[in-house]
Write a structure and sequence with these properties.
Strand order of the largest sheet: 1-2-10-7-12-5
Distance between the termini: 28 Å
Strand content: 35-45%
Helix content: under 10%
Radius of gyration: 16 Å
Number of helices: 2
Number of strands: 13
Length: about 180
């Protein structure tokens, strides 16, 4: 397993070891001890799976309370995945880190608590898997507008397919600061 720090040190790009032969391949997608050795010490309590078609953009999502760390991976297709630091007091607050995740590169992205998360689909279809360190809590669901000019994410698509909810999120400056997580 190889790891690479992103422009935000707490966001980690992971390249699991893949053992391939003429039958196919095998890889460990998660093993607690190995991930703990690279600094991922949270306990994952929920796994989620989504499918999306080309041009779909999901995000930028976070939870006000019950913040979630996520370990994300694409099982089929390709996405551009983004983590935005929204922690008050962080030297990286309002900054983003992104990576291409696909079934070809098998990369994973670790997104710690205190970050908003989103992705856009670059292939015809993408099957997206993510582990979460806390349970989904609808009453603490929050989001940031995907095209917030202050964050200025360089999305690789121009006119994404968005849910009504994702279209209506505020910019980071419009969110009440008491609803943003503190830097630990």
């Amino acid at each position: 397993m190889k790891i690479e720090k992103t422009s935000i040190p707490e966001v980690i790009l992971i390249e699991p070891s893949v053992f391939q032969d003429d039958r196919g391949y095998f890889m460990e997608t998660y093993q607690h001890r190995r991930y703990e050795e690279i600094g991922i010490t949270c306990t994952f309590v929920q796994d989620n799976l989504s499918t999306s078609k080309k041009g779909t953009l999901r995000g930028l999502h976070f939870q006000y309370s019950n913040s979630q760390a996520k370990l994300v991976q694409v099982l089929q297709g390709e996405v551009f995945d983004v983590a935005v630091d929204i922690r008050k007091g962080s030297p990286h607050c309002g900054q983003w880190a992104g990576a291409i995740l696909s079934d070809k590169n098998n990369h994973q992205l670790f997104i710690p608590e205190g970050f908003a998360h989103g992705f856009c689909v670059l292939s015809d279809v993408a099957i997206f898997h993510y582990k979460c360190s806390n349970y989904y809590s609808p009453e603490s669901e929050g989001g940031i507008l995907w095209c917030d000019p202050q964050i200025n994410i360089t999305w690789p698509i121009k006119n994404p397919i968005l849910s009504k909810k994702d279209q209506g999120y505020p910019t980071i400056n419009q969110i009440e600061t008491s609803k943003l997580p503190e830097m630990p």
